[in-house]
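Hey, can you fold this?
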Amino acid sequence: MKAAIIFSFIVMMCWSCTRDFTNLNTDPTQFTKASPEAGILAAVKNLNTQMANYNTSKYWDLGHLLCQQANRYDVTDAGLWQTMYQGVLGNLQQAELNYGKDSAFNNRVQIARILKAYAYSILAGNYGPVPLTQANDPEHLSAIKFDNEDSVYSYVLSTLKDAAGKIKLGGDKMAYDVIYNGNLQNWAKFANTLRLKIALQCMKNMGTVATDHIRDVMSAETSTIASETETAKMNFENVNGNENPYFVKYIKGNGYFPYNPTATGQAPKLSEYMLTLFRSYSDPRLSVYYDTVPLANRLLLTDTLTSDLDDSLRVVSYPVPYLGQPKAGTKLAGWTNLAGLADVVGSADIKSYSNANPVIYQPNRPFIMLSYGEALFLKAEAAKLGYGGAMSPEQYYYAGIDANFAYWGINSALRDAYKARDGIKWGTKGKGFNNYLGLVNTDIPQDDNYKIWTQRWLNYFPDGGFDCWCLERRTWVFNLPPHTNPGGNATYSPNPTYSDVPGRASYPVSVVNLNPAGYQGALEALGTARIDDYDIYQELHFAKHREIPDWSNANATYDYAFLRKWYGTSIQSLQAAAEANGFKYTISQTYRP
């Protein structure tokens, strides 16, 4: 309840951290000055609320974790820029300016610096060049310099190291700490683990600067996140004004089906590619990440099954409990194999696709910033690169899977069976299904880096949509299908009818209009030949180069193998499932091959 009170108070600040805080640290003989807690907590809430809202509008789509109703690759700015510079960095900077020289506030200032570095890592990962050295400086209002991407990441890495090192465990604490409840050691662990994460991301563009940070963090591994209790997360409450943003949008807003049966808006859906991946490796997380489709709306699948009693085959139709919404849901003109066939798998009824598990919409569900599971996958990659660690890369990898399964409450028998499958088991390669158009597949190479990246990706559900996007651009770990209704800046692309994953977000119009000199500097730092920053495939420095396929004339052919044999290969297994789950099936043909 204390958190709710302080958050209600923060909301009234309306981005400012220099207003009259009469109930916090007020000296009646001095001018009123906000306590650092007020600015830091405002920044934390503004940051995580915006990241959650961007998941629902952008990052879930970019990461293929969930599909929005509009189903777009929209990378135009929708408030992130303003929130970061005013509601996050503005508050943190005030805490640093007001108390940076006062030893009585040392730890709170270091926490502000850690959060500031975290915010800048998000800005750089979205846009590339951003204002840093002249940001929120009243001497630079009409012509604010954009620092290049490498400079921003260098600042992030050095600040995280310095701030973590300056935290004094016996020193001051925040009166209200919604992330670590006053545990200063965990703040230092968060900073060090975040430093490892950013250094791994920046190996391509930062070279030895990045690898030196990786080696430094791994040499002091006890100073990183090492248990679930050390996960960095912001807590929410079932209290008006402090509920989880997903709950506020999809449940409390009362405008989305199925949470409001009469609503026209549709809650986000399981993506078709993610379903294909889960089906390829019999991943038990399908049933904890996503919800089953109501029986009346399920796709009727036509399948061919054997019998345990004779050598005849049965052609059967039965409803499948899960279905993913495709990104390539509209036929392109060059896909001649699909002429005269339906545009999408299943029906046009959006209700036939699976929703997210309602557990992620609970009002008091915390927002995960950096988890224990992610920390283990980061260490697995660092150890595989030869930068040390207390365990082998394989041990970190399996521990990461264990941590993720434990977080979701999946039993050890299912976990261990999953870890033993080819493509999941260390040192093996996996043969996955094709997506429903046969354009891409979910194979996992023998290279164990891909296993680490795949599991890290899956660990990001549901809060890490931005991290999925960063991981995709850095590694191209997945062979993702094209998006045939991309939106955003895809209309500026040479092939506006489809899009691969965008390379960056575009700056808001306010930057173009109010800071033209800074904007031109940003274009130069990006290295774009355009007069704007609307190239959907503009690569940031940390990203791996990728040639975009010509999807317009791809050999698309419907392939439903990833759905077939849902309940097993025999008619008897289907009968048992129908009795247990209350659905009906029909046999249209019996024949002997």
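Oh, and this one too while you're at it.
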Amino acid sequence: MANRFGVLLRDARRRAGLTQDELAARSGVGVRTIRRLETGSGTDPRIGTVTLLADALDVTPEERRGLLAAADGKHPQPPEPEPAPPATARPAEAAPLNPVPSALPAVPTEVADAADNLARVIAARLRREEELRRVHDPFPLPVRWRQAPERLADHLDNICRVPAGVTAEPLDLAGEVGDIAGAYRRVPSRRLVVLGRAGSGKTVLTLRFVLDTLAARTPGSAVPVIFNIGSWDPTKTPLRTWLVEMLQRDHPGLAAAAPGGATLAAVLVDTGRILPVLDGFDEIAEGLHRPALETLNSVSMPLLLTSRFDEYERAVTMVDVLTSAAVVELTDLTPDDLAAYLPRTARRVTTADGGGTAWDPVIGALRDDAGSGASANLTAVLTTPLMVGLARTVYSDSRDRDPSDLLDTTRFPTQEAIEEHLLDMFVPTVYGAQPASPHGEGPGWDVGRVRRWLGFLADDLDRRGTGDLEWWRMGGPVSRSSRVLLVTGLIVLVTAVVQWLFFTPLARVVIGMPLYWDVVLADGLLTGLVIGLPFALLYTLMVVRKDKVLEPTRVRVRLLDRSSRQPGLRRKIATRFAAGALGGALGGVVYTFTSLLVRALAPYLQITSDPDVLVLAIVGDALSYATVFGLGCGVTLALAAALEAPANLTTATSPGDLLAANRTTLLRLIVPLVLVLALTITFAGFPVAVAVQAVLGSLPFDLNWELPAGLTVGLTGGLSAALGYLVAFTAWGHWLLFTRLRLPLTGKLPWAVGRLLDDAYRRGVLRQSGAVYQFRHARLQEHLAKAYRAGR
């Protein structure tokens, strides 16, 4: 195989008139790799490498398939997709159409492999999402669409990208859910807007579009990715930057550096290897639709955009249509659709007329009495897939409810009453299959508590104006002062416990002093304040004052593996050392004055009243602590830089897996860093104290830093500093403090927070979008939040 591939590659290169060096420069493949492939030495080439070479050589489709078949007989190139139907030229002598889209630029092999891996990860996740939503059980609802009014779309000539003097033929874009990818390919500009009212099936349509597009995707080509555009603020973040940030959030491995210095995510976006599927234009914050549409019009990238009809129409009225975009509108489900679907979701029951289902009388009423109040209301409700799905869950999946109750005009006099009933009964239905446990947690959840917990989460999302349930932002509303107090209090408590359990007994054994428990308790609290107050100051300045949200880490820890060494690692280590030394020195100075203040307030500790001695003591302690802490922090951060490696491309991207990966990374990193910091403080203290005393000259006291005392100070300081760093400056630490401790203590969430979220996802209350959860639908989130506020 490899020898035949080498011959074909060499012939194609010579026909193109390129040298091996020129082909390497054009394709991004190393010249040694090209030379090895042409001579037939080494292993068979990867598909991504072959694609880069074929793109650079501009071979025909037949030659491309031949190269791929010669490289790997198991992976022949699939036929090229059919081109979009050409526009009709009027007059006949019109010039040919401009090809759209143009060929993607060549990229290094690592980037092409990242795109292929991203496609596999997304396909697997979305197939799982369809299973949980029961999209194919028993068959997909017939979501259909038609072309939207012309006022919402751009000129047809712009959509078809025809040159001046050419008139394009109308496009036939009508279809059903299984044809969405084909409809998109029929749009020459590759820019399509899908409109529909709430619950009309837009999100499910995007799932099917991405899966069908991935099924027809060729290696190295663009990957469709769903982005929930509702979280985008176009006045603060450019679209390209936001897309890169979302890719890195949901797929941490794409934060790794690509050849050239940019991240893999940035290269994928910049080279057109990401096809943005922007879901939820209507969910963008009020007042931002205009700048969002203006920004989208400033770029020409292919995309698919979904929105509710009214919000998009208002934005178009204020600004302009989306440039070169065709627009389709989802249509309502019909009584025939309901008759074909709902009975097949329910169990058979025995009736006077023979076999049937509980839905048969309802379907009959909808057909026979379509104009009556009850039937008209229910028909209007069941025109969207969202409400049909809720009705199926509440009545088809339950043995105790009769869907004929929906025709009771006394209980449900209006269409809104039926919708509120279905939304209100959804959570009790999906959680009512198993009995409640005594504590309201576990497999048999207490339905009342679950509704309150989910309502709290929904209310918090409403308050923040987003639909993304990110575990690192789940702490609920917390004031600045409360954040500082909680972080400081936990650090003080942890430090005091470390002091009580480790430092005080060991110090007494080493020094030979008896244990006085009142002194031990007070000493622990004082030490906690000495450590906690500097952390409180740094936390206030670096996090709280800037309203900074701590993001999950996107690295992993390598202890023995050096295969993933990154370019520029030495510079990174030097930078980290300098930053750590500066921060540690400042912390040492703060520590000196904080320690002095705390001990001045301690009734059993005495401080000299001689001002000269006091000043020299402060200067000596400040120099000593600044040098020791600066050296310790510098060495520690430099080691952290050496141990960090980019996250793997295969890293799982579910919210739970991202949380577990952050926990594992931080704990694996903390253990060696604690030892390094403790040993550095221990062994650097004595020579630093001697040097400081030599610099200050003759002192009325000695700067003692004996090894036993230094060891206890080092270990205690290392443990306390590491735990303080986890709590104050990592997303996982904030999760522990504000979500896993504070919210259960206040009754807002259960102790098993992760279990609650995962179980809600499996039951269909939540859905997964990359590394975050979302509620099944915005209507459900709004309903739960409203009920929570009313109950509160």
